[in-house]
Every structure is written in structure tokens, then in C-alpha cells.
Please model this.
Amino acid sequence: MTKRPNILWISFEDTNPFYGCYGDSVARTPNLDRLASQGCRWTRCFSTAGVCAPARSAVITGMYPISIGTHHMRTTHTNRATPEMPTPYSAVVPHYVKCFSEYLRAQGYFCTNNAKTDYQFESPLTAWDACGSSAHWRDRPDPEQPFFAVFNPTRTHESGMWPEKCREPAFDPADVRLPPYFPDTFKVRETIARMYTHIEQSDRELGDILQQLEDDGLADNTYVFHWSDHGPLPRGKRWPYDSGIHVPLIARGPGIDAGMVKEDLVSTIDLGPTMLSLAGVDIPTHMQGRAFLGPQTAQPREYVYATRDRYDEAYDMIRAVRDKRWKYIRNMRPDLPYLLWIPYRNRHPIVQEMWRLHLAGELNETQSLMFQSRPTEELYDTDADPYEINNLARSPGYATELRRLRTALDAWLLEVGDWGETPESEMVRQWYPDGKQPQTAAPVAIPICADHYGMDPAIGAAPLRSPMLIQLHCATQGGSIAYTFESGDTPHWRLYTQPLRIEPGKTFLRAKAIRIGYRESQVMQIHFTATAEPSVPCDA
Model:
């Protein structure tokens, strides 16, 4: 049988393709450039949202955030100035939705995440074999076991542009290129120089991880993917403009030709299904992403979609669709100003500089875009206008493109559903009907042996006849079960996929269950004694 491939992800936070391999003359990214030369670089990869939690929920589930209720941002904490919001809560996704890594684990992959999750729900125990700052493919007990390992360097996060995170940037502010909607001041240039500094540092971290792969002799049979969750800068992060959703995507591995450049549309929602395709795992039919590599590769996309909703304290609702050239944005709340109150964003030095110049009346028309009123619709020719400044929605000459993209957006919303149409407080009441987070039911263990054929759960430490299987069952629909035979406080929890064979002798079994959005169950623990002698019923 052909050896199954390993998969390595190295994702950056808050990063547009500001890399040398994408033509950026300022960037110093030798490791990313080398990775691109060894494999494929996609030029049109877009995120489903311009901010972490909804974007990453789409990546890990293969489902659109608005379709599963993960479209808001950071709902597990509350701002003391807005106690009326229905936070804190964890999104309760449909019962059939799983983290796609669970499907890989079920097929024998060792799955690790180092270390960011940020899915709009707590990462379930069943998603990873190891999840934390030390998680690594080297943790796997069998060196022949295939792995899916995720590393999430965090230096490039938006907050890296705050002065306390990078007082002396490694790039000359005079060298950076500014988008036309930013004022040309030293503070703006210095802030972007900090951004490039952290991209360079993250490039070195990526190089270190790739060297570890080489040192372990695993590079030839490992797919390496690099991507980012969304963009970093004001009028980008938190917005469906390309500066918010256009992200890098680079991959190398078996069957990927070196030096390839693909201009197909790809969405970050497609990452999960693509990993399943490469690993030889069937893609569940409920997944809304589509594979772009492997035997289950789908037809190239005609459109990608993005949304904006309540991010931190500020309620909003924007829906967008893009093809290879045209972008359509629908503002459901044209009565709102562009800049809503988001305290975290207001810490950004460029935002502070723009507020200062706006108050002084020193911004030109293009630089004032974020301070103007919103149109109902926006239409951009991204080939002619890559910074999305000239709104063509009201220009009669573009009515055909406007109608086509309107229709495409409407059809998509009808297909995937939109939790944004339901008030957040009502949505949370449906998930937490008594105001409390539901808890997953504890598993029960059912013995199957010569004396017992799965009629009743086991009780106590009763002797049972070998050979014997133990079936685990959770009464909560959608609950996944983790189990261990290990003792101690930090065992390795395995994913339950089929009845467990119990060897002769004494066995200590622990199990617990989790459904995404629910609290973990209580731990079930039970002792078994398997014997070749006839036994008494386990409930006697």
C-alpha cells in the first residue's frame, strides 16, 4: 500500500501577500520565496471574512461562518461598557459539523496544532492529538504514523504594528509603499515598516520549521501549505475589500510541480476539503468548501464570498462576492458610518493618525473614504482599480456586471443560509435555551462478549468473558467521544471510531464526550476484568 502523505501547515496571522514571490519589492522573505519556487503559488486566494474567529472557523470546519453561526468575532468575552450584549457564549454549530482534523484522526492521522485555534468555539478535545505551544509532529508515538501538523506563528498579528511590539523596525519607513487611501506621514510609514519587520521574522520561523522537516527526513512525503487568515491594515482587516480578504497561498508536495503559478479562485474555506482529498479521506457532503488538489478536486470556482458581521462591540452586516475581476459589496446597514466603535482597532497607529488628520481637515478625498457615508452597493473593477476606490455601482455602463453579481450573491445566500438575519440575542437563546451552556452527555460503555450482546451498559468492575469489545455511546446528538486506557492527569485521549477490543486481564477505561459549542461531559471511568472463564452478567 502506498505510504500516506504527511501534511504540514504554517499559517501567518493578518497577512496579505506582501512577499517577494508575489512581486513585493520591499519584502525580505527568502524562505517563503523558496517554498513558492519548489511548489505552487496561488494569486487569487481569498478569506471568507476579514477577521480571525469567523475566518478560522471556516478553515477548520469547511463551512461558511454565516451558515453555522460563527460569523461574529470573539464572543467569549464582554466589554464592560456593553453589558447588554449576549456574550459570553460559544457558537453551537449544527450537530453534524466537525473540525476536519477529526476526520483525519479517524483515518489514523496524528493531528497537532501549535497553538492558535480561535474558531468562535472552544477547540474540542477530539480535534487534536496535541494542541498547545509545544505540539509537534515529533509527539507521535509511532514514527511511521502519518501526521497533520499546524503551526501558527503570531508575530504578524495586527497588534505587531503597535509601537510597544516593535519600537525599531528593521525596514526603512521611506521604502514602504502606501495604498492611496492612507496619508503619507512618517507615523503611517513607520507602522507599515513594523508590519514588514514581523513578516520577515515570521519567514525565519517558517524556515526553521521546514528545516526540522528536512532534518527528520520527512520532506519528500509531506505536503507543506502556507496561508493567512486575512489582511492586516485599516480598511482591510475586518472588511471584505481585497486588502482584508486577499491572502497568500503556497503549497509544495508530491505531484505539485515546482514553480507553478495558478490564477484560479480559491477560498480559505477550501483548505479543509483539500487536505481530506490529499489524505485519501472522503469529503463529507455537508462541507461547503471544495477541494482544489488531490483525487477529489472540484471544478474551479467562479466566485468567492466574504462577509462582515458583529466584530467585537460593533454590529454590522455586509455581504460580498468576487470573481476573478469584479467585486460586489452589499451594505445591509448603509445608515452606519464606516468606522464603528471597536476599541481594539482604535489602538492601531494608522487609525489614530487618520483620526487626527480627519479632525484637522487634512485628508484628501481618497484618504477620507473611511469617514464618508456608506453606499448601499459597491462595485469594483479590481483589475483597473486594485485598491477598490472607484465605486461603479451607480454607473450605467456597468449595470450588466452589477446584475450578474447581485444574482450570484443572492443564490449563494439562499444556498448556505444566513444566521446574520437572526438577531444575535435570539440566536444565542436557541443555543442556550435556559441561559446556560448545554453540556454533552457522558458516554456509557456497553460490553459485547459471549455473555453480553450489547443490551445494557456495564456497571462497576464486573468480570467479563474474553474475547470482548466495548462499545461507547453518547446520548447527545453530534457528540464525539474521546477515550484513554492511560492513568494520570495528562493522558493521551484517543478518538473513538469503533468498538474497543479489551485484552484479557484488568483494564481501566476513561471516556468523555464533546459536541462543538457544548461543555465537555463528565468523565466516565470503569474497570474491566476480562477472563476466559464464564462470567456473571455485568449488571448483576
